[in-house]
Amino acid sequence: MAALGSVRERLGELRLEYIVAHRLAEDNRLKEYNAAVAIQSWFRGCQVRAYLRYLHKMVTVIQKWWRGYVARKYFRSKVKTAYFIMKMNFYNEMAVRIQKRWRGYFVRKYVHNYYALKRYLEGVAIKNNIVRKELDKYADIKSREQAKKKMENEEREKEYHARKMHYLLSTEQVPGIYNSPYRPFPDSMEIRLQKARPLSHKDRPMEKPENPDLLYSDCRDAFSFPIMQPLPPIGMKRPQGPFRDTAEVLQQRYKPLEPTLRVATSISSVEEAREELKRQEWRRGVHDKGFAPFSSFHKTKGYDPLIHTSSDYKQISFVTRAEQPEKWVAKKDFRTVFTPVPLFDKFGKMYSKTGGIV
Amino acid sequence: MSQRQVLQVFEQYQRARTQFVQTVAELATRPQNIETLQNAGVMSLLRPLLLDVVPTIQQTSALALGRLANYNDDLAEAVVKGDILPQLVYSLAEQNRFYKKAAAFVLRAVAKHSPQLAQSIVDCGAVDTLVICLEDFDPGVKESAAWALGYISRHNAELSQAVVDAGAVPLLVLCIQEPEIALKRIAASALSDLSKHSPELAQTVVDAGAIAHLAQMILNPDAKLKRQVLSALSQIAKHSVDLAEMVVEAEIFPVVLTCLKDPDEYVKKNSSTLIREIARHTPELSQLIVNAGGVAAVIDCIGNCSGNVRLPGIMMLGYVAAHSENLAMAVIISKGVPQLAICLSEEAEDHIKAAAAWSLGQIGRHTPEHARAVAVANVLPKLLSLYMDTDSSEDLQVKAKKALKNILQKCTHLPALEPLLHDAPPNILKHVVGQFSKVLPHDSKARRLFVTSGGLKKIQEIVADTGSPLQEYINTINNCFPEEIVRYYSPGYSQSLLERVDHYQPVI
């Protein structure tokens, strides 16, 4: 209590003291406040900077790691592609090498085989030579044939000429114009004339048209009318002997006509004969009316019997041989066709086909 | 009046008619009489005589009409306008063989002139009757009917089609097999005329089995028949590969080659035409001909004849060479190039020269080897002169230029190119210099020769536009040589040297 008392004692003093202290504090407040702000701002600035520094550091670390990671990734892929390209290049190069070899081989073997081509061309050259030779031979043969034909024609013409001029041949007494006595040997024409057969009128060869194709008029040549050509001769061979006596043949050829009965008589000869008969009767008849029998006696009249026979006196009924085949001696019937009459007419007067007289 | 006097009048009349037609027929054989006859109205007088009662008069009037119509197309038209054809066609089926022949002659004479006239004959139904005449017994009737059919079908494809539709082809093929040479000839010619227009028509002829019979007749000794047969075969073969192969399959090959040696010019021409038509289609067919030795035979044939007979052979060489380089090489080793060179210089006519130039171009365009073979034959200057010659036809100039270009683009044989440097025009020079620019960088001997022969000098004298291919080629060549020598050969170099002497400051 004492203390309380002391304090109470000193209350005034204390109050004063309190006021002074407040005043002092009030006076310094702004100053202290500013100082405190300055201290606090410095401190907080330090604090924030430190934190920022820390953050930066961390960011750097993160970036460092990230960038490293990305770059490594990129690098790895880059290496991969580079490796791939390198491989590709290598493969390509190898492929080219293989293809080159193969193509060279293929082309040389199949497409442009130089040796085969060379051989082929040589073959063609040989073939050409052969063909040329063959064709030359062919042309040669042809030309020779033509020359031969021409020569033959000339020869034939000369021959014909010689035959035509045969009258110029020299005789024993008179030398011909080709056989001059002043020359050592006769002209070649003379020899030809000697060999030639003189041209006779009978032997003149039939004139042939120049072109056998133009036997018919084809409206190409100069004016001509269509002419029926005779048929060509069937065989050119002459008939061979021995021949009959000429006199006999001539007699045969020029004998007078002997017509057969059938040809000589008229077709209406029967009618004509009947008419003639009638006419004769009419002419000769004493009277016109016919003489008719007045009884039927003649119908019933029988035959008078013969003395030496014992058969019936009647007419025997006629049975032909054909109706009784059982009575035949041979198995065949008689031939019913006889040699016709005209053949008998000709008997001994004509030739038969085989040459004997019928 | 006795009976005899009455009959005498008729006899006289008949004799007069006979004499008239015979005289007219005889007069019609001479060209100078034709106009007079025409003015005298011979047509209207002959027409009633075609219907005369006497067969001889009918025939002779038909003969006279035929001769008149044969002369020119006006008269032929007069025959058509005079309504004579229906009469003829009607009686063609009815009358005897002499009349048939004369009537077919009239039809032939009319059909000969123009497609219109032939069409008018077809319109009046003559073709069917003529085809019936082909079945006649008489070879003369068959021949004149085949002849008329050939003349009708000669003009164009429609007329040929009409003849084919009438069923003429099998009968014509039968006619070829007849023994008469004249009939064979005419039938072969008719087949040739029929098949020349279109592949279809040729196919119908082939279907009738004509080729085998035609091929058999190649060896016939008759030259005129051979001509027609070869012509028919070539007309068949020209249309398509199939037809050509069928012709080849008839084993014509070694046989046709003998025809190339025939003395007859037309046989030669037609056989080389046949070979050409076959070679034209495919490399295989050409190869077949080469293997059969056909090229050598054709080349020999070209050597043995002249003029138009050569033309198909020349073209055949070109066609064979155009197919492939091997075939071209075969032509070269068969000694074709010298022969073509001879043709090029010997022949007078432009179209043959053009064909030879074309063939040479086809031979030389494949490889340097080919071009060298052509160049060695000294063809290039000749081609150049043909190209430069103002008298040459346009076609020849074009062909010569093309051939030159083809050969030059492959040619590495410099000695042959040298002369061209001096007298070629710029458009050819371009190719020549181009070839030099390709060869010189790789060949030192050639470079040396080029300088000594004066080629380099010539190159320096060429004036070329900057930037043109020619200038580039010149630059390439100049780069192959030392600068001094290029400058030495440049024009005006001596002047510039002298100028340098003028301006030179002597060092004392």
Automatic annotation (TrEMBL), chain A:
It is found in: Cytoplasm. SMART domains: IQ. The keyword Repeat applies. Keywords: Calmodulin-binding, Cytoplasm, Repeat. This is Spermatogenesis-associated protein 17 isoform X1. InterPro entries: ASPM, IQ_motif_EF-hand-BS, P-loop_NTPase. GO terms for molecular function: calmodulin binding. CDD domains: IQCD. Gene3D superfamilies: 1.20.5.190.
From TrEMBL, chain B:
GO terms for biological process: epithelial cilium movement involved in extracellular fluid movement; filopodium assembly; neuron projection extension; sperm axoneme assembly. Keywords: Cell projection, Cilium, Cilium biogenesis/degradation, Cytoplasm, Cytoskeleton, Flagellum, Microtubule, Repeat. GO terms for molecular function: microtubule binding. It is found in: Cell projection, Cilium, Flagellum; Cytoplasm, Cytoskeleton, Cilium axoneme. The keyword Metal-binding does not apply. It comes from the Eukaryota. Its main location: other. SUPFAM superfamilies: ARM repeat. SMART domains: ARM (SM00185). GO terms for cellular component: acrosomal vesicle; axoneme; extracellular region; microtubule; microtubule cytoskeleton; sperm principal piece. Important for structural integrity of the central apparatus in the sperm tail and for flagellar motility. Interacts with SPAG16 and SPAG17. This is Sperm-associated antigen 6. The gene is spag6.
